[in-house]
UniProtKB/TrEMBL annotation:
Residue ranges of every copy of the Histidine kinase domain listed in the record: 367-585
Gene: pnpS
Catalytic activity: ATP + protein L-histidine = ADP + protein N-phospho-L-histidine
GO molecular function, one term: kinase activity
HAMP domain sequence ranges: 185-237
Protein name according to UniProt: histidine kinase
SMART domains per UniProt: HAMP (SM00304), HATPase_c (SM00387), HisKA (SM00388), PAS (SM00091)
EC number: 2.7.13.3
Gene3D superfamilies membership: 1.10.287.130, HAMP domain in histidine kinase (1.10.8.500), Histidine kinase-like ATPase, C-terminal domain (3.30.565.10), PAS domain (3.30.450.20)
Top-rank taxon, per record: Bacteria
């Protein structure tokens, strides 16, 4: 900014100096011409006065000589009268010592004699000025009146004139310079401020502002720059807000997203994709898609979009480390406003859970169909046998009818479990919460299942803490939970084994564990034991009359009580179910 002011001042000073120098030279020339003309006119008047005096016939020579001497003293000049033979007739006045008569005769007279009227001549060597006026009588040359004077007065006046002129112009220069500096500062300060703010705006600092002191053009410039800065700041703030929203949306969306530019380089990958595929963004970004992707199916989708420029939607089953996941991949080309190819966007929806739910639904339908088909087929077959004549044989008829009753009971139990499970899973399912004692519940269940334990020759025992173990819950549903767990333990425990139930009491919760020494569960099967109709040992569970829905009901009932259930098992050594129930039922949790 100082450079701008310096350049402006330099240009202004140069202009002022040029104008003042030109004006000084012009005035000096005018004054010099004026004083020179005045000097010439004085010499001319003196010469004509001398010619008039010497032309008068009424004056004697002594009177003429006296008049000419007085005239020379008054004009401070030297008067010389020379006849046609170059004889000096009269010589008197000032400059007697400085006047060189030989130079006058040899240099000045030859110039003067050739003139027909008055002539001015300046001798710069001797510092003298001459004015010659010829004396004529009827057009005949009779002599010359020569008036000479020193030019020192003219030089002195000229020097004084130049001194005054230089001093005046110098003072004028200083005054103009001061005024110019003030005016320059007044006009350049807003411009400098505007330049400074413009540089800050160019750097991205949209908070910079300039002063709006005046209402002239510079004030309008400052006001316009401030309006521009405010608009840029608002636009930047809006853009940053929109970019933050977009970035937040992209990073927090549940589906993986990848942006590929028109040259095939990956420009954007969001957090969901990095977590799903466990990739490092530093090694993944700005790589060619066929180098970055490890799955051939994804590369084929990208190439298809590049070649066809149409949207693609496909379902892929991709291996990820030790598991395989299902993805619905949506790819679309990015076309600019002028049909300019921008790139490709890929969205990966993880539908693994949906596929699992769909498979569970299919398994559920198949299992229900299978479970219903067996008793219905038995009932239908034995009924047809009875109708074909087996009724006449009383013993055979009773045997067939007992089988029909058994299968009917099994069918009824299956339907009842399905109804219970459906009711528990409904949105409006409510428990009948009341204060109950776990000791009493488990005592009743042990009494109910003792006969089954004796039949299988399995030891059934229970460990209860001292005192009452009150919790808030639904007595009927709690009994349903522990009956299913203990009954399953008895079912899968071979002869000579043992089943043990235990209650541990804590200030805020109680833990009930059901342990057996049965066949156990494989580690990979544990996550699926709470699925509908899933059986660890299908032959044994079906022969025991189980429906395969017991543990599914148990899980839903425990969760309805805001509790937790877990399983620990080892094949051939037994299984332990642990149920954690809160002492106080909290409906908000």
């Amino acid at each position: 900014m100082n450079r701008f002011r310096s350049r402006f001042l330099f240009a202004l000073i140069t202009l002022i100096i040029a104008v003042l120098v030109g004006l000084g030279l012009l005035l000096g020339q005018i004054f010099n011409s004026y004083y020179l003309n005045t000097f010439k006119e004085e010499l001319q008047r003196e010469a004509h006065s001398i010619l008039t005096i010497i032309s008068r016939e009424d004056l004697s020579n002594s009177q003429i000589s006296e008049l000419l001497s007085d005239l020379g003293k008054n004009y401070k000049s030297h008067i010389t009268i020379i006849d046609e033979d170059n004889t000096i007739l009269f010589d008197a006045g000032e400059l007697t010592q400085d006047l060189d008569m030989n130079s006058l005769k040899n240099n000045v007279l030859p110039i003067m004699r050739g003139q027909t009227k008055g002539y001015y001549y300046s001798d710069q060597v001797h510092g003298l000025a001459y004015y010659g006026l010829p004396i004529k009588e009827k057009a005949a040359y009779e002599g010359i009146v020569l008036v000479s004077a020193s030019v020192s007065s003219l030089t002195k006046v000229n020097q004084q004139m130049w001194g005054i002129l230089v001093a005046s112009l110098g003072i004028a220069f200083i005054i103009i310079l001061l005024i110019g500096v003030r005016i320059t500062a007044q006009f350049t300060r807003p411009i400098e401020s505007a330049i400074k703010v413009s540089m800050e705006l160019a750097k991205g600092n949209y908070k910079a502002r300039t002063y709006e002191d005046h209402l002239d053009e510079t004030g309008i410039l400052s006001q316009s720059i401030n309006i521009l800065a405010r608009n840029l700041q608002d636009m930047t703030r809006a853009q940053e807000m929109q970019q933050d929203r977009l970035q937040t949306l992209i990073e927090n969306m549940g589906s993986g997203l990848i942006l590929i530019d028109g040259r095939g380089y990956i420009n954007l990958v969001n957090r969901a994709y990095k977590e799903l595929f466990e990739v490092d963004s530093a090694k993944f970004l700005y790589q060619l898609y066929y180098d970055a992707f490890t799955h051939k199916e994804i590369i084929e989708i990208v190439e298809e979009i590049f070649m066809t420029e149409v949207k693609v939607r496909k379902q892929l089953h991709l291996p990820l480390k030790i598991e395989r996941k299902h993805f619905e991949v949506y790819g679309a080309p990015i076309i600019g406003t002028n049909d300019e190819w921008k790139g490709i966007v890929l969205v990966f929806h993880d539908i693994t859970e949906l596929k699992k739910l769909e498979q569970m639904r299919k398994d559920f339908v198949a299992n229900v169909s299978h479970e219903l088909k067996t008793p219905i087929t038995s009932i239908k077959g034995f009924s047809e046998t009875l109708l074909d004549g087996a009724l006449s044989d009383k013993q055979t008829a009773e045997y067939f009818l007992s089988i029909i009753l058994k299968e009917s009971d099994r069918l009824q139990s299956l339907i009842q479990d399905l109804l219970d499970l459906s009711k528990i899973e409904q949105q409006g399912f409510e428990l009948s919460i009341q204060t109950c004692d776990l000791r009493e519940i488990l005592d009743d269940i042990i009494v109910m299942l003792e006969s089954k334990a004796r039949e299988k020759e399995v030891e059934l025992s229970v460990s209860l803490p001292e005192g009452l173990t009150y919790i808030e819950g639904d007595i009927y549903r709690l009994k349903q939970i522990f009956i299913n767990l203990i009954s399953n333990a008895l079912t899968y425990t071979p002869q000579g084994g043992s089943v043990h139930a235990k209650v541990d009491k804590y200030p805020d919760y109680a833990i009930v564990t059901v342990s057996d020494t049965g066949i156990g569960i494989k580690t990979e099967e544990i996550p699926r034991i709470f699925e509908r109709f899933y059986r660890v040992d299908r032959a044994r569970s079906r022969n025991s009359g189980g429906t395969g829905l017991g543990l599914a009901i148990v899980k839903h009932l425990v969760e309805a009580h805001k509790g937790q259930i877990s399983v620990e098992s080892e094949v051939g050594k037994g299984t332990t179910f642990t149920v954690k129930l809160n002492r106080k039922f909290d409906e908000t949790s």
